Every structure is written in C-alpha cells, then in structure tokens.
Amino acid sequence: MGAGTLAAAISGLATSLGALPFLFVRTLPRRTYDGILGLGAGLMLAAATLGLIAEAVSGVNAGGVFHPGQLALVVSGFVVGGGLAAAMDRLIPHQHAGGHHQHLGHEPGHDVHDRVPAGSARRAYSMVGALSVHRIPEGLAIGAGFAVARTSHLGIVLAIAVGVQNACEGIVMAAPLRQGGVPAWRGFAIVGLTGLVIPIAAVIGQILAGAALATMPFVLALAGGTLIYVTSNEIIPESHSHGNEGTASAGLVAGFLLTMVLEAVLR
Fold this sequence. Notes:
Layout: H1 3-19, H2 30-57, H3 68-91, H4 121-134, H5 136-145, H6 152-179, H7 184-194, H8 197-211, H9 216-239, H10 245-266
C-alpha cells in the first residue's frame, strides 16, 4: 500500500470516530457539532486554496515566462471540478441545512438526531449512501496530492483536513441510523465501511495525476474546485443554520489557521 493510499485509508477511518459516541448516546449538543463542522470547513478551504490551487498555478509563470497553456489547464480544471460537484449536488438525493431551497431542511436549534424522524431507517440509509458518494472528490484530491514527490505534502495536509471532516460526517450518518432504530453496533459498522470510498478514490486520483505530469495542474485545480464547492454549498451552510454562527466561524478560522501552519511546516 502506497503512502497516499494509506493516508487516505486513515482519513476514511476517521468516519468511525464521528460514529463512536452514538454507541453510548443518542444525541450530541448542536453547538459542539457546528463548531467541529466549522473546523472541518476551515481545514478544507485552506487545503484547497493554499495547497491545491496554489500548487496548480505555480507553473503559470515558471522561470519568469508566462505560460498561457498552463493557465488554461488550471482554469478549465477548476471549472470542471466545480461543475462536477454541482452536478452531484443536483443528481444525488440528500438533505441540506435548514433554509436551503433545493432540499429538505430542519428547524434551527434541534440536536443532530432531529435531522431524520424516528423510525425512518430507509431514509437514513439513503443519507448514508449519498454522503458516501460525496466523498469521491475528497479521495481524488488526496490521491492527486500524493501523485508526485514535490506535492506529497499536499496529500498529508488534505488527508488531515478530510479526516476531520469525515469525523463530522460520521456524526451526520450515525445519528439518523440510531434514531431510525438501527442497532448501535450495526450503525457503527455501516458508517465505518463508508470510509472505504476515500482510499479507492485516492488510488484513482493518484493514477490520473501521475499518468502525465503535464495534466497535473488540471487535476489539482479540479480537486480544489470540488472541495471549495462542497465546502461552500454543504458544510458552511450546515454549520450556520442552527443559531451557532459564532462557534462555527471560530472553528472555520481555527481550521484555516491550522492548515496554514501545516502547509508551511510540511512544504
């Protein structure tokens, strides 16, 4: 197992950490969850902008010479990444935060378990499946970060950022399963297995980015575009939809700062 696949697998396993509390409790305080979600958003935004996008554009003016072809690769990759994330958002049935006009929401102030009504096990399983598919771009980003030696630090930063976010998603998936009547250990196992999506996607991302170094800016920008879209469309609105905006924003700033430090130290 390569370093990228191993890091992605560990990041995927972090999902189980989010599900772990629900072996013992049925709910978590909403403020705690929103703060952790904000932290994950900050980590992913910084990893996408300071890491993936910055690396993608680094060759545009290599040697003091402007390379329009490199810029075209970066721009097209970013647009395609955002477009793919938007298409997944439209085509895959799932729930957004309260107030999102495209999907069903819930009232502010409720605990995490209120997202799905009691007894709705089928709906909970649907949510688990949708969130699993949404992780494909995250795995691709980690794989692209490990594609070549000079960008391997990006893979480490991304694995950490995605790992924290996966822990948050573990909470999102485990809570409705418990509320829907799924036994605690079965729900924990189901949520943990969804983490396998990330290392599988990471292998694909590493192959795509490493197959031809000339396409590296495109793949890095594509991964950055998908992460930015998902963070802004899913994670930030969710963390700000329950009256805990201050806690969520503080978490976002802390996550961005942590990634900035990691990027500087590991480069």
